[in-house]
Amino acid sequence: MSQHPAPWSRPPASNSNPATRPGEVRGEGRGAASSTMNGGPVPAPVPAHDPSQVPPERMRTLAYHRLGFADPRHEWWKPLVEGALLFFFFIVLSVLFTIPVLLFMDNPMDLDNVATMNQLDPLIFFFLFGSIALMAPAAYLARKIMGPRPLGLLHSVTGRLRWKWMLQCGLAALAIFVVINGLSILFDLMTGGEALEFTLAPQWGWLLLMVILLVPIQCFAEELVFRGYLMQTVGRWLKHPAWAILLPVPLFVAGHLYDVWGQTSIAIMAITMGVITWRTGGLEAAVALHVVNNCTVTLMAMVGLADLSDTSGGPVEVLFTLAINGIFLLVVFRMARKTRIATSRTIILPPPPRLPALAQRQRVIGQNGADLAAFVVDPRTQNYLSLPEQYGPYTVRDGQGRPVGLLDVRKTSSPQAPGGQSGSGSDTNQGCTP
Predict the structure, then answer these.
(1) Distances (CA, A) of 36 to 74, 133, 350
(2) Which of 85, 194, 217, 353 is spaced 20 to 30 A from 424 at the CA atom?
(3) Across residues 201-215, what is the average pLDDT?
């Protein structure tokens, strides 16, 4: 995993100008990412030692969901191949993972129905959460093959995981969960609810170990795919962040076998984690929320306060989810402003190609009989364009729009131009006649 940005790409410092909003892009588009243009290959980008000396037209600011454009080898079809590779690697790893686990199970046929499984059985718990965690290596392998580079762009706009920031978000999420759950239990007791009865699960030591070691990896793997790969895939095709946030939500919800109330809560969490990933420029805050949520539910199930196999819900659970996620959003937004966390990545495009020497310029003849050099340049990218031969000749105009002659790019020999000069070239004849 690369821990450093590409030499031609410079992530913004943590104290970068906060006036640049996430998703705000200047002049971003196909021309900024393609490795080829009409006139031929674009020169490789070069590093800029002093970004303040770089003209604004060569700067591009990318939000997290648009980081695919940080790779000069980006192509629109690459996310499709990356997704196919991710699925293939996940299936292969799942088979290799499942076979040895089944050998240790007394009744492997119990795995055909998740709702009837005893998820507090350490082996079943390991199988369920471990199989989801396999999405992480599958995602890394697919991104390693297809790009964009560096690999760390899957984590954040800085090209790496910001561990300190993730820890801060995790502590904030933990505090919110403790307070909200505590108030909920207290309210239930004050309104005549039953007293709490703690029942410690058998083999709780193994479960606790897996909560500490395995559940965070499982949560990270889900975020890597649903908020990492999918958001950046949508962002390569659709610019507005709402598309990248909302389109992966149905896929995330479909992976949870709950009733309509439970899936509504899952959708709220998915939207929250998508928004916070875009707003903070990385997966860290979403991973922190996901880890604290899953660990809290699992720990409560270990002491008899929750049921991991329960797929039903209700309006109260939805309101509970709205409260936790809404408060977490507000807290993290304030933390991000206070710490001035990087929310976008600035890339430097290559300089426009230099004009060829005068002796190498193909000449055309103007109306006044003087020799002129004609070049067709894309005003957006400053790259030379090739004119289709079958549509020539072309009218050449001066700065005031007045015609000064014809530019012939046909391969056949052009007529003798005034002044006794011919406009023939080696590959494409370029002659200019009045």
Answers:
(1) 10, 38, 13
(2) 353
(3) 93
pLDDT per position as a tens digit, 18-42: 444 443 333 344 334 333 333 344 4
What's the rounded mean pLDDT across residues 92-109?
82
Find the mean pLDDT for residues 400-410: 72
Residue at 431: amino acid letter:
G
Of the three residues 290, 314, 347, the one that is the final residue of a domain is: 347
Q: Answer whether the bond into residue 393 is a cis peptide, omega within 30°.
A: yes
Distance (Å, whole) CA 139 – CA 154: 9
Tell me, yes or no, whether 204 lies in a domain: yes
Q: In degrees, to the nearest 5, what angle opens at C-alpha 99 toward C-alphas 127 and 121?
A: 25
Q: Domain range holding 390?
A: 353-434
> What is the C-alpha to C-alpha distance for residues 404 and 428, in angstroms, rounded to an integer?
20
Is the predicted pLDDT of residue 385 greater than 70, yes or no?
Answer: no
Same domain, 293 and 357: no
In the chain, the number of structural domains is 2
Residue 134 has pLDDT above 60, yes or no: yes
Least confident of 66-80, 136-150, 389-403: 389-403
Residue 308 sits in the same domain as residue 359: no
Q: Look at 301 and 408; give whichever has higher pLDDT.
A: 301
Q: Choose among 420, 393, 427: nearest CA to 407.
A: 393
Residue at which a domain ends, from 322, 347, 372: 347
Residue 37: inside a domain: no
Q: State the Cα angle at 400 between 399 and 403, rounded to 5°.
A: 90
pTM score > 0.85 for this model?
A: no
Clarify whether residues 294 and 363 are in a common domain: no
Residue 180's pLDDT is what? 92
Please check whether residues 73 and 107 belong to one and the same domain: yes
The phi and psi torsions of 198 (rounded to 5 degrees) equal -90, 130
Banded model confidence at residue 334, pLDDT cuts 50, 70, 90: very high
Beta strands at 403-408 and 394-397: parallel, antiparallel or unpaired: antiparallel
